[in-house]
Amino acid sequence: MRTVIQRVSEACVRVPAEAYESKIGKGLLVLAAFIDEDTDDDLEWTAKKIAGMRIFDDENGVMNLSVMDVDADVLAVSQFTLYASTVKGNRPSYIKAAKPDVAIPLYEKFLQKLEGHLGKKIGKGIFGADMKVSLVNDGPVTIIVDSKLKF
């Protein structure tokens, strides 16, 4: 599982075709992608890592607080393109990304695990929809977390 986490002062995902919108203020925008080999352990490790990641400033301006410590929100959006391979040619290949029949259950389970660690509901996108994501990156702070790179 691969995620890109952005500390934001606000973020929103819209799906115009379905009149859907989910938005947050201060918090984290999490872009998430899955591969066929992802397991429940990958989902759990990543959700726990995100919930506990200390990337918010404390009273001294040091990134020392987690999203839970500052009672901020999370917006999680599926994004298979995080597994793009750009090795050959100029057209990215997405062959490594899990197909919807595998990725949708992983995404839904990841959302549940993240909510469990945070102790509250989170915002989310609609898997496979043509989503419009907007954000104000705070810092900027952008972190990549890949469950296959944990040691």
Key structural traits:
2 helices; 151 residues; alpha/beta; six-stranded mixed β-sheet; D-tyrosyl-trna(Tyr) Deacylase, Chain: A; globular; two-stranded antiparallel sheet; 21% helix
Structure described in brief:
The chain has 151 residues and is of the alpha/beta class. The protein has one domain (2-144): D-tyrosyl-trna(Tyr) Deacylase, Chain: A, CATH 3.50.80.10.
Structural class: alpha/beta
The gross shape turns out to be: globular
Low-confidence runs of at least 5 consecutive residues = none
Estimate nothing, just give the exact number of structural domains: 1
Order of helices and strands: EEEHEEEHEE
Distance between the termini: 14 Å
Determine the mean pLDDT.
97
- Specify the helix fraction band: 10-25%
Query: What is the number of E strands?
Result: 8
Return the CATH topology: D-tyrosyl-trna(Tyr) Deacylase, Chain: A
- CATH architecture annotation: 3-Layer(bba) Sandwich
User: Helix count, per DSSP?
Assistant: 2
Strand content: 35-45%
Strand count, sense and barrel status of the largest sheet are: 6 strands, mixed
What is the C-level CATH assignment? Answer: Alpha Beta
Radius of gyration: 15 Å
Relevant CATH superfamily: D-tyrosyl-tRNA(Tyr) deacylase
